[in-house]
Amino acid sequence: MPPATDSRPEIRILPGIGPLVGAYDGLILDLWGVIHDGRDPYPGVGDTLARLRDAGKKVVMLSNAPRRSAAVIEGMMAMGFDRGLCDQVLSSGELAWRALRHRAAPWAKALGRRCLHVGPDRDKGLLDGLDLELIEGAERGGFILNTGPWRDGARVADYQALLGEAYRCAMPMVCANPDIEVIRAGTRIICAGALAAHYAEMGGTVHYFGKPHAEAYTACLEMMEVADLSRLLAVGDSLTTDIRGAAAAGVDSVLVTSGIHATEWGLGYGEAPSQEQLQKACAAAGAFPIAAIAAFTW
Question: CB under 8 Å to 55, separation ≥6 — which residues?
Fold first, then answer.
């Protein structure tokens, strides 16, 4: 019997975002892998953002960064971005902070105040204003705030003992970044999502904030004040978070191919995969953008 094939039409590979934007009122843009590489802006991104602004398009940058939105904006300005081009930013860390600050959900009310922070020192700003008692290890009655590994180059296995003890103490986890991995200036590193996924596999309770979860897109819609989902376009480099998340929210999406998937396709920055590579990858992920672009250029 011949193998099953996906019946969806071919995904267009376009030279840039320009040919698409006329059909949309607003764009939801990923940051890491689309706008910058964690250290520097990608070539042509500033010009593209300026063109969107001049065209009157509403733009929200939706990032799975485990820091508050203001801290993400500060980081972009340090990279050289114009403040006027990145004024609407929503981070997964911001969403997690709001949930822990306001405690509106029943699960959040039940967390208590004892918190084990798993993550690097640069993420500790996420704790400001939360009135938490930081603990040094796993404790019954506490919870984990997971913002990622303590250092670059860490492996999930490095956290096995800690997560095992936390599971035995029935500690719930708040994951402020669902990404499994990211590429920083060409180096692949694990993110908070990798630790959270392992903890969930162990049987631990995990509360996620950020893409691909629906609450992130709902918050974007509120910021953009665009009621018609068909007039929104999401742009991202990850099939599992950006493209799948947009589809679940009912939003069209465009895949930037020289981001997180570039290595598996053997691509350099600004290069596009073959049509066959693209179709197979999208079918395997169950995530289908309306188009693909090699880089976030006009």
Answer: 21
